[in-house]
Amino acid sequence: MNIYKKALSATALALLLGGMASAQASAKTLIYCSEAAPDNFDAATTTSGATYDASARNVSNGLIKIKRGSTELEPGLAERWEISEDSKEYTFFLRKGVKFQTTSYFTPTREFNADDVIFSFDRQGNKENPFYGKGTWPQYGAYSFPTLIKEIQKIDDHTVKFVLNRPEATMIASLSLTFAVIQSKEYADQLVAEGKTDQLSQLPVGTGPYQYVDYQANSAVRFQANPDYWGGKQKIDNLIFAITPDASVRYQKLKAGECHIIAYPNPADIDEMKADTSLEVQRKEGLNIAFMAYNTVVAPFDDVRVRKALNMAINKQAIIDAVFGSTGMVAVNAMPPGVWGYNKDVKDDAYDIEASRKLLEEAGVKGLSMKIWAMPVQRPYMPNARRAAESMQADLAKVGVKAEIVSYDWSEYLKRSLEKDRDGAVMLGWTGGMADPDNFLAALLGCEAVGSSNRANWCNADFEKLIQAAKLTTDQAERTKLYEQAQVIFKEQAPWLTIAHQVMEQPVSKKVKDFRIDPFGGYLFEDVDIEE
């Protein structure tokens, strides 16, 4: 059963907000104009940033947190932790007195404890768990948790031990990611008893600063401050995500005061925004990459010569100029230069039409027709995928390749792009969840990520050996050497066209106080305030 309410018209949404304001004259309301609707409200089931923002990042907490506006890790639901000498046992000491949110659909009878931690991971790794479903847990798989976790032991109500099959250099950082937020086992048990297991992803319950109120499909999500939040009740009483896919419309709403913060502005509007005295435009280097992933298991894209030829046919600087403007830079490697371990010696594929034609001829490919998948939404790494695809289409025509541009609804796009026999090269991207090479190279290109976040379906034994070796040591110098070698193999094999990295420029109403750009591309509203 679909429990989401029908979409509201713009007029109905305005009436909703107006009614809220009149009913709660003294309450503070912040409106964020988001770029897309969430897939659901369970971040572990998807790779959608819009879903992360509407669930894990504002409604829930993990054992580990990321300090607001930085890449620094800090305690979350775990107050502290200990690591064994062999780095295969992690013992977490849980925060006491933490309450799950009380909502219209769930009233907790106990506080957060070790059972909730164990459930939150067991549902993603145990096929016998009633919430395992079809086993679609893209992040859990991408970060190698199915082979990494041996068991999770309950020591007592406030102590859990993760026992690993091998050392994992990124273990603590991985637990700060959105798939690792903690769910209520008591709520899950209630849903099992009621025969409503699907409701876990539709009506969320967390321990975070805001709690879910309702969702008008494709129109608005409404939250309110969690009165029992362990980090203190928020200064904002009502938080509204007004779903507004068009960047120009988002900007108009910002100027009209209908939004206080907007997602992903058009680069062409930034200068005008900076001149507006009612706005502040924040700027931060982004840990992101835009790419186009070839399906390397489908001919002729299983031939590295074809992939290289297509890469050389595309003028990436022209895409930067037309789509990104001053906010973009050409991407060479599979990770941004702001992440340690970046190999500065790797050379990009040259834009060379004649060399491209020769490689296609050498591969025996003539009259190639292909599809370019263009995202229907803006992301922190791509302002306008359709325009970028049109530029690629024109370039490929010069070497005799006919490219058809296709797109789908965002949720459908993400789902279909995972298909092993997918027809076409998929334009996507990634904003790192942690400032570690593993979060790009393993998460996007590792063998264990095939079927989840590895859209190229690329599994290279030499590359895999290097990234797996890098997981086993905490020596950053040694890890850097391994990752530098892996980047060389990636560039030689060309499973992607690396497109761009984008600097994040964020317009915010000056009424908003202490909003900080998340370097990982999220929109987090904990400890944000707004002038009445």
UniProtKB/TrEMBL annotation:
Molecular function in Gene Ontology: peptide transmembrane transporter activity
Keyword Signal: yes
A GO CC term assigned to this protein in UniProt: outer membrane-bounded periplasmic space
One Pfam family linked to the record: SBP_bac_5
Gene Ontology terms: biological process: dipeptide transport
Signal peptide: 1-25
Keywords, alphabetical: Periplasm, Signal
Compartments it resides in: Periplasm
Source superkingdom: Bacteria
InterPro entries for the chain: Peptide/Ni-bd, SBP_5, SBP_5_CS, SBP_5_dom
Principal subcellular localization: periplasm
CDD domains membership: PBP2_DppA_like
SUPFAM superfamilies assigned to the protein according to its UniProt record, in alphabetical order: Periplasmic binding protein-like II (SSF53850)
Residue intervals of the Solute-binding protein family domain: 72-449
UniProt xrefs under PANTHER family: D,D-DIPEPTIDE-BINDING PERIPLASMIC PROTEIN DDPA-RELATED, PERIPLASMIC BINDING COMPONENT OF ABC TRANSPORTER
Protein family according to the UniProt entry: Belongs to the bacterial solute-binding protein 5 family.
Name of the protein in question: Dipeptide transport system substrate-binding protein
